[in-house]
Fold this sequence. Notes:
- The complex is a heterodimer of chains A (154) and B (440).
- Chain A is an alpha/beta fold and 154 residues long.
- Chain A contains 7 helices and 6 strands.
- Chain A has helices at 3-6, 20-30, 50-57, 82-86, 90-93, 108-118, 137-151, and strands spanning 14-15, 34-38, 44-49, 101-102, 122-127, 130-136.
- In chain A, the strands form 2 sheets. Chain A has a 3-stranded mixed sheet. A 3-stranded mixed sheet of chain A has the order 4-5-6.
- In chain A, helix 6 links the parallel strand 4 (101-102) and strand 5 (122-127).
- Chain B is mainly α and 440 residues long.
- Chain B has helices at 3-21, 26-39, 45-50, 60-76, 81-92, 97-114, 117-135, 140-154, 162-171, 175-200, 209-216, 227-250, 254-269, 274-279, 282-301, 303-315, 319-337, 339-358, 363-366, 372-385, 394-405, 412-439.
- In chain B, helix 5 (81-92) runs antiparallel to helix 6.
Amino acid sequence: MVARDIMTSEVVTIGEQATAREAADLLLRLRYDAVPVVNAAGDAVGIVSYEDLIRLALPEYLDDVDLSFLPASAPFLPAVDAAAICDVQVASFMRRDRMPEVSPEEPVAEIARIMLRDNVRRVAVMEEGRLAGIISRGDVVRAIVSPLMTCSPG
Amino acid sequence: MTAVQLLACGIFLAAYILIASERVDKSVASLTGATLMLLVRLLSQEEAFHGTDVVHGVDWNTILLLVGMMIVVAITKETGVFEWMALKSAKVARGRPWAILALICLVTAVISALLDNVTTVLLIAPVVVILCRTLEVSAVPFLVCCALSSNIGGTATLIGDPPNIMIGSAGHLTFLDFLKVDLPIIALVFPIFLLAIWAAFGRKLHVDERHRLRVLEFDESKAIHDWPLLRKCLIVIVLTLAGFTIHGAVGLEPATIALAGACLILILYGKSPVKVLEEVEWPTIFFFMGLFIMVGGLVKVGVISMMANAAISLTGGSTPALAILLLWFSALFSGVVGNIPATVALISLILDITHSVHGAGNVQALHSPEILPLWWALSLGACLGGNLTLVGAPANAIVVGISGAAGHPVRFVEFLKYGVPLTLLTLVVAMGCLWVAFLR
């Protein structure tokens, strides 16, 4: 079993000019946890995920501060202006580090190994320099269990 | 100047300019300068690492005191007690902005006198941002005053601020000596500082009643998430402070006390020390090592002696004139390169002056009436001078970083608007105290 067999080839992307709110709406609507970001030419320039959206709302300087003291009546976080955050462009907070890239012929086991070794949630399947598809951890788990289910004794 | 002296000065100045410019990481600049001095044999590795009668080399008493206290604070901060103190201040102030500002400054100053300034502001400043946003007031004056208070509070004790740690070590001054001299001076300086910020902007702070009530809804008791660990930390801190107060009497160096505190807290902590030891600010530690070695190089080639002679001839060798010169020069020097590099260089200057005046560098000479006021002048000048600019002391850059991340960038010039007048004020008060205590 190789990458081509399990990848999602109709990749939904978002433009780098889109706002954080648009990115959030897209992710929530599609139930994806991340989408690739593309520039005007259609080249992938980064990735935006739930994690990036949460980071935008919870700045790093608060990482060591226990926030249990916030009352039920408080907004998400009084230190952050949620309305202003919604208008921030994706290009300014997306992650630019590229996803690990694999060829369509890469065995799924190798993709699984890369995901665990590099602690990444998804890999890009590249064919002739173009993004041909995305493989998520869910796709790998599906690939692992489906033959087990069909081959189970009984 | 000889070629060797020029070479030493060149390396030293290049490193200090890089440190002041912040173009290169300061620990890298400092270690590179030190290593260059070793490579071109301006001083030997033996002199740099272990010191001799003339060249002092790396001051391990300072280094290990810093490491010990950083370990204590790394575990203490896990309990949430710093956030609790900031929130409790807001509650005690009943949400009134000036009262919050004054209490947070006081809490920051007291914690900074006992523990690491950088960690103190790193944990208090984020809570200050949340409080200010809740009150809908600008966080900038609160954050900057937090840094200034941290540096003023740190001046009060031997362990409060890195310059004092180095001065105590080189001048053989004990924790109690600092409590007798610096603490009363700071007890006078700090209220005057608060009065000044009240007059400048504190009295104009007003908030909407609705916003004030929102702060009262914060539940500070939830900030402490590990009561058993907090009890252990408080016991260790109290024991360590008790150890510091008697270190001179029992003939132990402060670093030994700090390491004992660090060992005790690591044992009581019980979990793996790996994460705790990673929390030690290693870049700062290496920064210190490089500075000690570079200044050792300057001492070895005689540049510090030349400066000491110049200072003596400029002041006619008068102790009051030397002390006042040192107070103001150390503050200015701290504002340009930061108070840690400034202090390392000026300590060697005092040691050389001691040799010129007494022909010896023993404890009697260091504590003679001619020399003793110079140590206190340097302590007050460098610690309070740390407030002069953004680069003056490490805590300043921390709060400015947090302010920027919270959407309120503070530029170099904006910091000066707070730093310069308040530093001048605190230095004038300190100079008056120094005069009354030693120089009349």
